[in-house]
């Protein structure tokens, strides 16, 4: 039996329950993983509230690290005792042990601790596909990145610095601005007292930026569009403030703007490609160019409190659960 957070109805954090579930032995193509850290991501809130529907009751969470306890028939590149992480596969990471498809497991290299990896598997891989695949950055660009002091944001700050990219990051407080700058964000915009588009115009000599990475959504859509150059790209990689609705006529008026809504599953598959993404990420970590530790830590049975903290927008960096 294993401990797991499950929910039987959509709603607020209070719907999350700690339950005992049967785990069993891994079948063909599977592996049983005992978690050391479980990441909390904003997408988990979308599932909990029903914005992304699931058949209920269900588990929650798609991102964790741990140690392989056993593997099933046909699994050859993962073995018992291996340290691994994952970010794809079925919901249910909020648990102490679970059976997973082995082909989504990512081996963790020596020199990268489980604690560090817990902040990198989803969030670091997100920074990788945003900056290296969705809108490939080569260095020399000036970009606008929303929520620069968040879990993905702080890794993005460091990755931008490593690439030689000038990053303008939005944050909600002066405290978060200092954290973002310390991690490599070139300029910060404190949204509680500064106009985003006006400030971007000042910082770019009125030109705007070629790309905006916007994980906030509804509250920042207009500012994102107004910050872009003609034929610029809006990468809508999240909707923490609510979903966006875009009139395509507005895109033309704003300068023939391109918009994409990327999803990890379409960029991190097949397996060989996912492992190459992880290699690039871990190489930067091992070279000291990206450093990451949890900003907030909760026990597994405090998952509801972790969600409340994340929804309050008062967290800095990554949030993790410890089984």
Automatic annotation (TrEMBL):
Pfam families named among the record's database cross-references: ADH_N, ADH_zinc_N
Protein name stated in the entry: Quinone oxidoreductase 1
Keywords: NADP, Oxidoreductase
Organism: Paraburkholderia caffeinitolerans
Record-level GO cellular component terms: cytosol
GO molecular function: mRNA 3'-UTR AU-rich region binding; NADPH binding; quinone reductase (NADPH) activity; zinc ion binding
Enoyl reductase (ER) domain location: 11-321
Domain of life of the organism encoding this protein: Bacteria
EC code(s) of this entry: 1.6.5.5
